[in-house]
Amino acid sequence: MPKLIRLYIRHSLIGFGLGALFVALLLWFDVAGLWGLVSNDKAALLAVFILWFFNGAPFAAVQFGYAVMNLAERPEGGGGLRGRLPVPARQGARIGS
Fold it and tell me: Where on the phi/psi map is residue 29: left (φ > 0), alpha (ψ -120 to 50), or beta?
């Protein structure tokens, strides 16, 4: 399997795991009475699944985006600022020719 596909699957699973943690915390702290709504319903499993899936998808997308951005190679020899402050360029206004 190509490395990029493995990267996508791994980080999507991490994102959906974070989404599951988020939904569990929503239910545990009973945000907006969510636990009361879900626990007294016949379709509680479906409601929790939909809540998990639609929260897991953005978590997975952000996790994968973060992983892809971390793939960039960092310059080794003094490239970038690396602790130095940028020096502003001073240019005078030219009037006339």
Answer: alpha
Query: What crossing angle do the helices spanning 3-28 and 44-69 adopt, rounded to 10°?
Result: 130
In Å, how far are 40, 48, 81, 87, 88 from 91, measured between CA atoms? 70, 61, 22, 13, 10
The total of structural domains in the chain comes to 1
- Give 58-77 pLDDT, tens digit per residue: 999 999 999 999 988 776 65
pLDDT at residue 43 in the model: 93
Domain span including residue 44: 30-70
Residue-level pLDDT at 10: 97
In a domain, 40, yes or no: yes
